[in-house]
Design goal:
By secondary structure, the chain is an alpha/beta fold. It folds into two domains: 8-227, P-loop containing nucleotide triphosphate hydrolases (Rossmann fold); 228-266, no CATH class. It contains ten helices and twelve strands. The chain has helices at 47-55, 77-83, 99-104, 116-129, 145-158, 175-186, 202-205, 223-226, 229-236, 260-265; strands spanning 8-16, 22-31, 36-40, 62-67, 70-71, 84-87, 163-167, 191-195, 208-213, 216-221, 239-244, 251-256. A six-stranded mixed beta sheet has the order 6-7-8-3-9-10, with helices on both faces. It has a four-stranded antiparallel beta sheet with strand order 2-1-4-5, with helices on one face. A two-stranded antiparallel sheet has the order 11-12. The longest helix is centred in the middle third of the chain and has 14 residues, at 116-129. The model has no long low-confidence stretch (mean pLDDT 90).
């Protein structure tokens, strides 16, 4: 269903607005082919800006990005679309479109390079992977918020990307739907970079996590290391604890507001 996995390398990325306001400062991160990386940080940390840079939707004012060793800036828009799919926080779509029609939009980058039966097969596979096989003829306006989010993911998968970028994909989803969506994405076998809001979901999804604060990369590594107590306290102003899972004993991270006395001491 995909065209393989892509490796990505970002070196010294910086980005400033046209007015000169810096949003990112010298961010470097490498993502191996097939890896799932989470990006976390408080509001305004630069997470969405970094994702837009990695997607090629913004050009960095400093640094460079390569995909499979090739500079991202040298790829034409259609070439980028054949390698990279993006699911934004809010996907604009005509509410009168049928789900199958909406998912078919993901085939636009391949329109001139694939036969009609290949397009149809990719759309069917994407619908099935996202649990929408029986809802292809429904109009988007009739879907629940969670179903719309899965339709957006199906559109991205129909694109057959080697790199999938997700900007807070669990927004507006209930707890079970969040877990199901992240399990689905993790099992795709492609490279995935996702901005996540809920720290408790990071360990379920990502092999590594990058922590941003005020436009700077302050930690990057396996969740237990990058989300260690002192990093979480400094960046998010909450406490982090490692505890054994009651079902199988594996270590899990638990987050809680610090006690008032601890806040005063900080």
């Amino acid at each position: 269903m995909t065209t393989g996995s892509a490796s990505l390398s970002a070196t010294g990325l910086g980005y400033s607005t046209a007015a000169g306001r810096p949003l990112l400062h010298a961010v470097s991160v490498d993502v191996a082919a097939g890896e799932c990386l989470a990006i976390v940080g408080p509001n305004g940390a630069g997470k969405s800006t970094l994702l837009r840079l990695l997607a090629g939707r913004l050009a960095p004012t400093q640094g460079r990005i390569t995909i499979d060793g090739r500079p991202l800036a040298t790829l034409a828009p259609q070439q980028r679309a054949q390698r990279i799919a993006v699911l934004a926080q809010s996907e604009p779509a005509g509410s009168m479109l049928r789900v199958r029609e909406y998912v078919s939009l993901g085939r636009i980058p391949w329109r001139e390079r694939s036969a009609a039966d290949a397009h149809g097969r990719a759309v069917r596979q994407a619908l099935s992977a996202c649990g929408l096989a029986l809802k292809g003829e429904r109009r988007l306006e009739t879907l629940s918020g969670g179903e719309r989010q899965r339709a957006g993911l199906a559109r991205a998968l129909a694109q057959q990307p080697a790199l999938l970028l997700l900007d807070e994909p669990t927004n507006h989803l209930d707890l079970r739907a969040r877990c199901d969506l992240l399990d689905l994405v993790r099992g795709l076998g492609i490279t995935v970079i996702a901005v996540l809001h809920d720290l408790a979901l990071v360990g379920r999804f990502a092999a590594r996590v990058a922590v941003l604060d005020q436009g700077r990369l302050v930690a990057c590594g396996v969740p237990a290391e990058a989300l260690r107590a002192e990093v979480v306290r400094t960046v998010f102003r909450v406490d982090a604890f490692e505890a054994p899972h009651p079902r199988d004993g594996r270590p899990v991270l638990v987050f809680d507001s610090p006690l008032p006395s601890a806040i005063e001491a900080a």
